[in-house]
TrEMBL record:
GO terms for molecular function: ATP binding. Residues 253-382 form the AAA+ ATPase domain. Keywords: ATP-binding, Nucleotide-binding. SUPFAM superfamilies: P-loop containing nucleoside triphosphate hydrolases. This is ATP-binding protein. Coiled coil: none annotated. The lineage of its organism: Bacteria, Bacillati, Actinomycetota, Actinomycetes, Streptosporangiales.
Length: 613
């Protein structure tokens, strides 16, 4: 990101930032963003001038490393006492009135934004400062050189009464227009009127890697809070990675480790165990996936209440600018989700290099670890297979080690059930076979969606309903209610929430599988993959039907937009991906699965394989 020079001219400054945004993100600003800049940035520029700090460098829309989050402004300059680089992160708010919410310690309610709580901007900017200190090498030995401030330049103190009480420290100061003089004093305490361009350049070009402070913290939070017992091949995989780390460091050597295993074989337990132990030993490591739902849940699980631990969990497309071997280990969980490139429709043309995502991931660490299940490749463009990863690594001269997790931990430890599913879906060379029971896992057939739902409600423990993508998926209504899109006869239910905000009582998409209120919605592959619950209810839609003793796919019945183009997804690829989708849905349960098929002939076929109660 290039630095932007402060200018009190509102129109000129807004146009300058708009052009910068187009170059760096490939999109222009929304009307609300443009208005925000025109109202807030000139006010900050005037304050800098009035404080006698006109030479300070303004970095507008500063992108935090390894994330899409952006800080409004980072002021870069020279500290007036030490002469060292000094940075002040500024969160600008145009709020006129706001008050603390009783829904959370750091939440506020803002006038003009009814219906949702927002994070106190002082807490927001404090977390930005902490994140920068945790990941930017230029701040590694000087974490106190970055400070944070929330500037509510339209509000008086009484308008935001109570928000000051939530301020924690020097990284979370809050000023109103009534305290403009105090704000100037604060700025002069951390910045001098000397050119800040060099400090800005050092920040923008800083290598990105977890700090030692973060590693120590992570070791305590993950390794000591959550104790995992690894069994058999799980321990083999764990020790294989740890040996590879030692060897890579001693001999400047890169080694790729591939861990394969079916649903519930413990891949994520291995990942968390590795992460905790690596940090305890002072190694640098990050965890990455290609799934928002899975990553958000991983952030909640080991890092409860800890923003710093949440920052260890990234996405596969976070490493486009990572330096070579900047990490000791990069743990790529759910590696079947790896895509050809990290670009999306939002990537600016100048950054569409065509660089393979595998290259980005392998380059970032001395020991890249890939944990995957090849039968979970369910979307067009995913290429996370053992063959692809191994071939790519060997072509670059990297050593490759592979371990298979033979034990089954999901599905009640029933390898028999997983094998039955593979045969049912034609993912094994053998024909479908009758289910003759397993004392550790229950399989039954429902004859209606009403029966399916009632059976799940009667079960102890957690339960979820999922379905093939055979119905449209509507946006919420204006009254904040979900549309009941999944309609089967006189039974109907909504899909899970599309996005990362709750709708009414329904949890956001990434928490559908883990929050209690998720039961009332039907989950799809995009939210179910990577999760488990005690009891799984699966609705096999009309895109998978029984004909002549086996299941065949019916593309015309599938509503997933990802499969719409036959050019992008040929029929043969659709057939494989659709079967993999149902394989994932059918293997989410830990204690049992209840199946309902919409197609009558398919129900009859399943009845010949699944004995009646």
């Amino acid at each position: 990101m290039e630095s932007l020079i402060a200018s009190p001219n509102e129109a000129a400054l807004a146009e300058q930032i708009s052009e910068h945004l187009r170059m760096t993100t490939g999109r222009g600003p929304s009307p609300s963003e443009a208005r925000s800049w025109q109202r807030s940035l000139p006010a900050l520029a005037r304050d800098l001038a009035d404080a006698g700090l006109s030479k300070v460098e303004m970095l507008v829309e500063y992108k935090l490393p390894l994330t899409s989050k952006r800080a409004d402004v980072v002021l870069a300059g020279v500290h007036p006492r030490t002469g060292e680089d000094s940075y002040v992160v500024v969160e600008l708010k145009q709020w006129s009135r706001a008050e603390p919410s009783d829904q959370g310690e750091h939440l506020v309610i803002v006038d003009g934004m009814p219906g949702r709580e927002l994070l106190n901007p002082a807490e927001q900017v404090r977390r930005y400062c902490e994140y920068m200190s945790d990941f930017l090498s230029v701040l590694k030995d000087r974490p106190l050189s970055v400070h944070g401030v929330a500037y509510l330049h339209n509000a008086m103190d009484l308008d935001v009464d109570g928000l000051h009480d939530q301020v924690r420290d020097e990284r979370s100061r809050l000023f109103t227009k009534q305290r403009r003089g105090d704000f100037h004093t604060y700025l002069r305490e951390h910045l001098s009127d000397k050119p800040g361009a060099e400090a800005a350049d050092r920040l923008l070009s800083s290598p990105v890697a977890p700090s030692k402070q973060l590693m120590t913290y992570a070791a305590n939070e993950i390794r000591e809070r959550e104790q995992f017992t690894l069994l058999d091949e799980q321990q083999v995989a764990y020790e294989l990675v740890m040996r590879a780390v030692d060897k890579a460091r001693r001999s400047d050597f890169k080694q790729v480790v591939i861990v394969t295993g079916g649903p519930g074989s413990g891949k994520s337990v291995i990942a968390l165990s590795l992460l905790g132990e690596l940090y305890r030993q002072g190694r640098t490591a990050l965890h990455a996936t290609g799934s928002q739902s899975f990553t958000q849940t991983m952030r909640r699980y080991p890092g409860r209440g800890s923003t710093r631990i949440k920052n260890l969990f990234m996405y596969f497309n976070s490493f486009t600018d990572a330096e070579q071997n900047s990490l000791d280990v990069l743990i790529c969980d759910e590696a079947h989700r790896i895509r050809e490139t990290s670009t999306s429709r939002f990537t600016p043309a100048a950054k569409r290099t065509g660089r393979p995502q595998l290259d980005e991931l392998m380059t970032a660490a001395r020991v890249p670890v890939f944990l995957l299940d090849e039968h979970q490749v369910v979307r067009p463009g995913e290429l996370g297979t053992v063959h692809t990863i191994e071939q790519y690594a060997r072509a670059r001269g990297y050593a490759v080690n592979r371990v298979s997790l033979d034990e089954q931990f999901r599905c009640g430890g029933s390898r028999k059930y997983e094998h039955w599913v593979l045969r049912l879906l034609g993912l094994d060379r053998e024909s479908p076979m009758p289910w003759d029971g397993d004392q550790d896992f229950e399989v039954r057939l429902a004859h209606s969606p009403h029966e399916l739902e009632a059976a799940l409600l009667a079960k102890p423990g957690t339960a979820r309903m999922t379905a093939g993508f055979c119905w449209p998926w509507s946006d919420p209504r204006p009254d904040n209610s979900l549309v009941e899109d999944v309609v089967i006869g006189n039974w109907s239910r909504p899909w899970n929430v599309k996005k990362d905000r709750a709708v009414g009582d329904a949890p956001p998409s990434m928490l559908w599988a883990t929050e209690q209120n998720g039961f009332d919605q039907v989950g799809c592959i995009y939210t179910a993959q990577g999760f488990e619950y005690d009891w799984s209810g699966v609705i096999i839609g009309p895109d998978l039907v029984a004909r002549d003793g086996s299941l065949v796919t019916v593309r015309s019945e599938n509503k997933d937009p990802a499969f719409k183009s036959k050019k992008a997804v040929p029929d043969a690829d659709f057939d494989q991906l659709a079967r993999n989708v149902y394989k994932v849905l059918l293997t989410r349960g830990m204690r049992g699965t209840i199946i309902y098929a919409v197609d009558p002939a398919t129900r009859d076929f399943l009845a010949t394989l699944i004995p009646a109660d």
